[in-house]
Amino acid sequence: MEEKHRVNCFQLFNLLQKTIHKDIFFLRIIKVHRLECNRILAIQLMF
Fold this sequence. Notes:
By secondary structure, this protein is mainly α. The chain has one domain (2-46). 85% of the residues lie in helices and 0% in strands. The protein contains two helices and no strands. It starts with a helix and ends with a helix.
């Protein structure tokens, strides 16, 4: 499950780089998801 989530994080970051979304609801989801992604990526960097 963590593996799948990690892939989704990278897909999400790629999507952010390629597109600019003005939708506030979408941006709010991104913001929350990004916090979760950063936590997971930070944990990975430790290993």
